[in-house]
Amino acid sequence: PHPPQWLVAVRQIAKTDIGTGPSRVTRSILREWLSTPPGACIVPIYLRAGQYHYARSFTAQLLGLVSETPQEGIVMV
């Protein structure tokens, strides 16, 4: 069986992270979950035009990965 997926909405910190305490805490927790998943597949997403999209560019940046414009495909829920 596949592990459960946790869809984590990151629109606000991906769009306008001003480096405040809550943003830093959110980024830190998300980075930890992505590095050491808690028994679930962690999937950062954002809402645009009424549809959820994978936040792959944001995720790559958060993890310090170099990525050539990853596809921000639509999440099917």
Structure characterization notes:
This protein is an alpha+beta fold and 77 residues long. 35% of the residues lie in helices and 22% in strands. It contains 3 helices and 3 strands. The protein has helices spanning 11-15, 21-35, 56-62; strands at residues 5-9, 41-48, 51-54. The protein has a 3-stranded mixed β-sheet with strand order 1-2-3. It is globular and about 40 Å long. The two termini are 18 Å apart.
Short characterization:
With 77 residues, the protein is α+β, with helices and mostly antiparallel strands. 35% of the residues lie in helices and 22% in strands.
List the helices and strands and how they pair.
Blueprint: E1 5-9, H1 11-15, H2 21-35, E2 41-48, E3 51-54, H3 56-62
Parallel strand pairs: 1-2
Antiparallel strand pairs: 2-3
Mean pLDDT: 86
Number of helices: 3
- Structural class by secondary-structure content: alpha+beta
Total domain count? 1
**Helix coverage percent:** 25-40%
Number of strands: 3
Anisotropy-based shape? globular
Beta content: 15-25%
Distance between the termini: 18 Å
Uncertain runs are none
Radius of gyration: 12 Å
| Biggest sheet layout | 3 strands, mixed
Strand order, sheet with most strands: 1-2-3
